Structures are given as C-alpha cells and as structure tokens.
Fold this sequence. Notes:
By secondary structure, chain A is α+β, with helices and mostly antiparallel strands.
Amino acid sequence: MSTLDLQSVLALGAPLRPRKLKDVPFVELHNRRVQGVVSSGSDINRVYVSFFEAAGGGAVQYSCSTNNNRPCGGGGLCKHLGWLMGEAVLQYGAERVARFLEATGDLDNLKTANDVYSRCRMAGRAGREDAGVVFSRFLSYLRYIEREQTTQPIPELAWFISG
Amino acid sequence: MGSPLDALRTAPEAVTRAETLLTQVDACLSMGLGRLGAEQLSALDSLARSLQGTPLGAPLADAIKALRRSEFSERALLSLAAARGALQGAMHDALLAQASQALGRPAPLSAPPLDTEVQELASHQVTYLESARQWLVELALAGFARLGPEALLPFAATLEKLQGEPRLVRQSSLLTGLYQELVSSLPIDGMGALPLYRWADLWSRAMLVCVRAPLPAKEEAASGELRVLGTVLRHHPNFVSVVAYGVLGAGDSARWVRASLASYKVDVLTGAEVWRLFASSAPNLLKAITERASLSLKAMPLSSAHDFLWEDKKASAGAVIDSVAEVRAFALGGKAALRAPLAAFDRHPVQLAEPVFVEGAALQKGDGTRGPALVLEGASLPLLTRRMSQAAEPTEEQVSGATGVFGLLRYDAGAWGLEPLLAFGKGKKDIFHTGREASKYKSDSLAVLQERASRLLRAKS
C-alpha cells in the first residue's frame, strides 16, 4: 500500500451533494446500513425510521416503521423507503450507496436509485426491530445543531478543508 | 538578484531530513506498534538519536525500550507523539525563518506569554480525555492500515460526551474530525493510497491535546480599527472554523491579527449555508468578511499570539475598506504589519501562514502532473487552491484573470505554495475573496433541522 507522502492537508472523499431536508431530514451510511428518518406526509409530529441493510452476498434487507417499532402500513418497498433511497443517492451518489450495500457486479457509472436497486438482491424485511437505534442516531445528529459555538482560536482545524 | 520566490523553491535541508525520518517513523503507526519489524525499530532509534540531549531524550529512549519489549503503555505512545510534535515544531521554526528571510521581515520566533491561571478541568472532563487517549492507544496498536469498524465505532459514545464540553472544544473538534475521517475511509483495504503522514499528524496532535488542556495565550483588551483582508474556511463534516485575517491599527503599531468563529455542524451544511451559523452571533465580523467593512473595536480581547477572543458587541462596522491598497503593504520586501509568534505547543508546519502580496505574476495552469502556479520573474510558486475549502475564493480561474493576488504562504507536502485570500483585477468590482457570495445560499437546511431539534431534543430534556 502506497502512502501520500508528506501531505498534512487533504480533502478526503467526495463532497456530499446538497439536498432539501424537509422530506428526509436525515440519511446516513452507517454500520452496513443506508438508514435515516422520513417525514410522515400527513402528520407533522410523526416520522418513519427506515433502512436498507447489507445482508451479505449482495442481498439487501429493509425496514420501515415508526420510532416505536410499529411497521409502516406501506408494506414491501414502501414510499418512505423509496424516498430514503432517493435522498441517499442524491447526497452520496448511486455508486457509493451501492458499494456500501455490498451490491455485486459492475458498480461503475450507476446514477439513479433504480440503478442501485438493479444491483441489489432485495431480500425482504429485516427481522430486527432497530428503529430505536436509528432514531437515536438521528437525535445525535440533531445535537450538532444545538452545540455551543466558540470564538476561541482552534489551531487543530488547520488540517481540515472538506466535509 | 533573482526573485525572492526563488529562495522558497526548496525547503531547508534539515527540514527535508526531518521529513524523511518522520515518514520512516510513521510506518510504525501504519502497521501497528505490536508488529514492528527491524526497519521500523531502526527508525525509532533514529528518532531517539535526533532528540538525544533534549528534555524528550530520556522519556523517548525509555519508550522505545518499552516498545521493543512489547510493553504498550500510554506513556510510551505519548512520548512518541511528543517526539513527533517536537520535530515538527523545529521544522516550523526553520521554515518560518526561511520564509521571513525571503520576504524581508523579522521572524517571530519567541514564544508568546501564556495564561497560567486557568481553572483545572472537572473530574468528568479528565475521565473523557483518558477515554480518548485509550482509544488513540488502541488505534496505534492496531495500525492504521488494519483498522476496522470494531476499533472505531465504539468511540462514538465518548466522542458525544466530549462534544458536550465547551471547555474541550479543541480536543473534541479534532477527535470528531479524525473519527469521521477514519470511519468514512472503511474498508481501509479499498482505499488505495493511505494518507499516513496526515493521519500520523492527527493522531499525534490528538494524543498531545488530550493529555492536558493546552494553556491559552495571555489576553489583553485591544481597541482600534480592524481591517479584515481575507478569510480562511476550515471544516470537516461536523465542525466549521472561520478565520478572518487582518490588520489592527496603522503605521508602526499595525498588528497582523486573526478573528475566529467556530461551530459544530451537520454534514449536509456546506458551502454558503455555513455563514448562516454565525449570522446572529457575529453580524459585525460577518460584515467585515463578506462586505469588507472596516470595524471599530473597543476593548476586544486579543491574545499574545494575536488571536481575538471575538465578542461581536465590542465591534461596530463602518465603511468599506480599500483592500487593494491595504494588501500592498505585504509585498515582498515591504513593511508588513507585526506578526505574532505561535504558542510553542502549537508550532507545526501546517500552521505557517505568512501574508504576502504578489503583483503581475502569470498563472501557469496545472496539468496532469502538477497543480497551478504563479510565475514571477522566472520563479514559480504553487497556487494552493487544492488546499482550500470548496466554498472558498478566489478560485484558480479568478486568480488567472487577476493583476494582484494576496494570500498566505503555506508549506505542505514538502514544498512552499500560496493559498490565495484575495485577488483583484482592473475593474472596481473585480475583487474576489471568501465570503463574497455569502448571501447566495439557496436552501435552508439549518432552519429545517433547528425546528426538528427544538421539538425532539428539548422535549426530552
């Protein structure tokens, strides 16, 4: 493995693409899942917690429920999961999402959510009730918005120019 | 006599030798300290020899003896981090001396006085830092080339606790950046080239700031006119730091100073939306950054290292400054405003940021093998647009059309280069700098998330 000799300051990784946050306020690639939180179309106080999970060998399981683990009424690949995938592809790019789900085959030049689906073997609903885990990630995410600001100098940030 | 830029074509020989030594030592961190071979141990011995006779000499020699015996104590790894930091501090000084001579300025090399009367950390804060050091030790033992999710993800809980401690923002912002970068680089096997020098930098720096909170530089109250000449944006997915560079005062008492604004953020907040974070907390400083307004300061806290501890109410915005006239004072051989030294603990080549104005240079566009460069009197200086935030200006294109460029001399990857802060052309409207387009954000991610946060987070507390 070669090394990037002597370079302290680097922009690592592709930049995230901006998107509107109203429908899918949170989506991330984490721990083998494309997971996030989707706004309910009808009730402003309700959110759905959804994820696609790499299940090994190119298989992908999925889940969509309220954050109390009540399955969403949509069944199968519901509209919430569709929105989640759409926003994940918008934010990260189709290729990166497909690779993260350990999809098989040629993953270059993927562009859309449908391209991602076409490379995955959808293997039904995930058994585990992990809505709480994903919702907790959403709360941690929101906490970044609430942290105190500072005007003290922070020399440590000199190394960071991207993200 | 050739162009002063000629003098910056290569680094001092001692710096180059130190870099070679560091890359050999860094191989230890790549493969894991539990797997050191003869070559790596020999590199550690060279490191020990280079620090012999200094206060770090004995602790480092002991540390290497311990590593040879497979004793992986935190103390041994801390000595290694300190040794790396000390070498880079010396590199910083040598490079600063080189740049100062080339620019015809005195070199600010004496350490600024520190404020020693700071409060002790609370015991829970001490505990969080211990956990952080423990994580860093585990990283070094595993080796960067062999990291997996099990070595990284468990640290998220401690990280969140650290983020809740404003007193530990230096440690937390750095650890968050390092953590996110490592996690998003998984699987390491699929990475190709490993940014080892960078990760060794971040690792060493993290070890050092997590031992004991670094003492801040002494503060005093400063008044006068501040003219912001350029702004640097530094950020990773979860933190942003805005640093405005400028001149306080005029004539012989002019000082080159920095004003900082920093905040945690979410990864989707990028580009011009970043400025929204500070719209209500620092409207005056933002006017200086985005509109080049002059600022009148009354008793604004300023450290001995020339960093403001900005309190926006102590500033009031005035007329637009004549940036073009101001930056000319930083021409090669000109009389620049007084620069302050860095706190000794902070010295590292990455912190070098010598203000310089270059006029009449031609832009040589980059090709496949090298990046763009400014060419003046036959000497060329790399234009470090690759080292800038995507939201920063001036861009390479704007510099290519400019007659004058003001920026910061930087040192990275074994070479000097210029990070442009402000570029101007012939027309009055041809002035390009970061923040110029601050009002051009299209979406309002911040408001959407703030609304969610207020409903979901505050309801819980």
